[in-house]
Fold these 4 entries.
Entry 1:
Amino acid sequence: MTSPVPGAAALAAVKSAARQAQGLTHQSGVDESTDASRQYVLTLSCPDRPGIVATVTRMLFEGGANIEESQQFDDRLTDHFFMRIHFSDTGEGSVEAWRERVTPIAQEFGMTWELWRATNPYRTLIMVSKAGHCLNDLLFRWYSGGLNIVIPAIVSNHTDLEPLARSYGLPFHHIPITADTKPEAEAALMQLVRDNDIDLVVLARYMQVLSDELCREMSGRIINIHHSFLPSFKGGRPYHQAFERGVKLVGATAHYVTADLDEGPIIEQDVTRVDHRMGPSDLVRAGQDVEADVLSRAVKWHCESRVILNTDRTVVFD
């Protein structure tokens, strides 16, 4: 899905909303008195053993919670258990109080876990180079309320898409990068991440390879869109690689970024059909809508706490 920049009549409202959004964080900034503030999501994973579900649900019941949605998965190959629970607090609870209740259970079962307010937006930094279709799609979905995010900053190694960012009232940061300046460029990027309390970085066709150090520091917090159905056609110019192989499907893959290029845990994929009449440029155009859709779904699911890492793979709850 791609959409035009909002017209002049809507621009003032967009800029106002963007300015207000800068004050929100994923951890705070929600009115404690509203019904929305009493909605929470708990995600967890741990070695499988009897009693996990009973213990967690009993804790929620005793704390005055009402379970709105619960999903679980037992990976028999790794003997690991995964769970996502969306619940509402019928009393006067808080994030801190619920985390205190979860902590002893997590220690008992050896859990990796997170608990957030369900409606708190993820503070999301978007990185892009010259191709604007994924950025345009994310901005429109954010603007129309389709993504649970706020966007404190857009970063690019080029200036081509600055007008698009500015039209939505969003700060645009030009951080040029060369082989010689890469350490300084990444230091500037990480300063933006820290200054803006960033929860998630989205590479919306950012055509630079991040350093191993940055990938480790931001592990599980960077989502990339690769314009190929991985593991096929890794690296650069995947549509041209696909054309040379005469494929009948081209696709896109959203995945978490790791130090291994295009090897990170996959969140979402999709394809579109192509045929013998299409050249490399036709494949590029055919794949752009798929890229935008796949990336937006991955961002949406991540920011609804529906994605849990499972070693080199992911568990994605619908």
Entry 2:
Amino acid sequence: AEPVEDRLGRALVTAFGPQRREPENPYNDHRPYASPRCLFPVHAFVDGGAGMPWRLLEPDRHALTGAPAAPARNVVLTGRYTTVPPAYQWFRGSLIAIELGFVLRALSLGLELFDVPARLRLPGRDAHGLLPALGLEDAWAWSLPFVVELDDGGGVQAREADSVPAPPAHLARTDPALAELIRVNREQTYDGAPAPLTTAVPAGLGPSATVPDWAELLWRRHSGRMPRALHGMSGRRRKVPAEALDSAARWLSVPPPGRELAIAFEALTVTAVVQGVAGQADGVHRLRDGAARLLRADTTAPERLEEQYGYGVSPVNGCGIRDAPLTVFLSVRTRELFERLGTAGWGAVQHAAGWAAHGLCLSAAASGLFARPVRAFKEIPTQRVLGLDPDEMIVLSVVVGVPQDTGGALLDLRL
């Protein structure tokens, strides 16, 4: 019964608002979605009405910058590349693209829970001109924006082409990787019409046996806790019910909105290394259309996967891959994808992978498990463990494990 602008505010806080602080965790604070190193480079901007400045969502304050204005009609999602340390070089582009997929599903869920109808407008050829309108001094350093239009809104008008923000001239010399990834991002434009945000949740999803409601589900999502400010993830070997794999497969079958993102999502191959799941053989499985199918029985696959992971067990790092009941890989045949989508395929498949992985994170939380998105597996040896062909690129992986009780405090930041 609340006005739509109040429901939009609640949806934004649901999607972005900090959930908790873990004093022992080197990465704080934790939101409802995963982010590399908890950097949260993707931000939401809300329009202030005709002729009024855009307002930045400040998740810590549960508020927007600036003075109250007319009811919002649009939300813009864009990522700041310079938030990610320069040592990541070209990988900064992929991290932003993947997180946009995470955030899109998180926001879609929030809008769905509070009954705020909306449409997604992917970046078109004129999207470059919208960045200066957001009031960003470094507009050149931000990704092309996703626009979420409320159903009573009229869309966003970009500025003229001559206002397109250009990187500073010295960037090609001082940070050539950043200059190049920005150039590539500006080519990631789409031709599709705005698409309705339908659902982020599998149809007919039953109640969780361990989580009573959505607020608790978002609170419980985590990526595997370590004690005493150590890095990595800790897990333990334990048999898990069949529901954990069934739920994961169903969450991974919900496509993102937008024609191009849906095409990229359909092109993804989902392969899971499974162990200790009731009713399922240990080995390599293919997840498709909401179900899992055994490709090859292999009890050694989890241990061999851990050998190919870039951050193994050490005095300062934990690694729970060999004990994980599910390790999921999202891969794509890039040549076939680019034949269908052209240059837009590069960004679209990473957005689609982020959308899929966030669904897997929520599925894991509902099953009492942790889910850790990673990009640290050695590509070619991992292809061999999974039985992938040499032309299949692994876009993103998610380790789903049984959490250990580290005994650390969890401080509630929701109120």
Entry 3:
Amino acid sequence: MTAAVSRLRSSVDRNEKRKQQRSRLPAVSIAFGTLSVASFWVPGLGFLLGVAAVVCGAIATSRSAVIDDEAASLRALLGVVAGAAGITVSAIALFPMLADL
């Protein structure tokens, strides 16, 4: 009976360690990308948030914890795409503002 309990505890401990080792960078990348698209009209802010999203997503895809987890890998890729969209939209919105200067 005690052997079964100890095996159950060890499997629970392994699952908890896996949950603790998950990277938060994919979620941060998505958040920065979303904020960059939403704040494209603020000069420079959307661009900087987009760059931060791309950097966080790129770093996240290089981590082994994210490479092993397909969902986290896709979240990191979504963050990179959202960051690139934020950079693009911010650059397009910046051109008319520069014409007025």
Entry 4:
Amino acid sequence: MNTRIALLAAACTLALAACGDKSPATPDTTAAATAPTEAVETAPADTAAPAEAPAAVDAAAPAPAAAASGSDKPAAVVADCATEIEGTDAMQFNVGSIVVPASCTEFKITLKHTGTMPVAAMGHNVVITKAADMQAVAAEGMGAGAAAAYVKADDPRVIAHTSLIGGGETTSVSFAVSKIKDGGPYEFFCSFPGHSALMKGTIAVE
């Protein structure tokens, strides 16, 4: 009898142990353990999408650079081998380039000062040189003074220049087109001290 009871108790113990191994807690633990893994795996996919946005910005970046590469001012209007440009009290020319027709033998530039300030305070002129000579000619012209229109006397680098004028005044200069056909590029600028940094443009024969 005791033997039967012992065997029965042993069988119950084994049955309970087997049921314990099949406890529903195991699947829940596995599901809980895998859930964060799935979340971690999908997270990079969500964060990867915004990373493509800078690429779109970079692709558009060359547009402003292209705009900054040239003047935003219009070309001068040319008729009958002549043009008129304006200088202002805001230290600006109204044009950024002058295109001289190749059919012209002489060309005339008329400068109109549309401001009101006197020549001593905001004088303007037009000086034409090679682009490579512009800074040196402007710097040396400062030493020549206002009486010389801030242009060094007999400077061989100067192709042509007008007189220095104040608000409401007009001046002009004519020169042989052959002087700017070769050896360029050439520029026109104002040699009044400090003006050439802003008041300048290109001049070419086409």
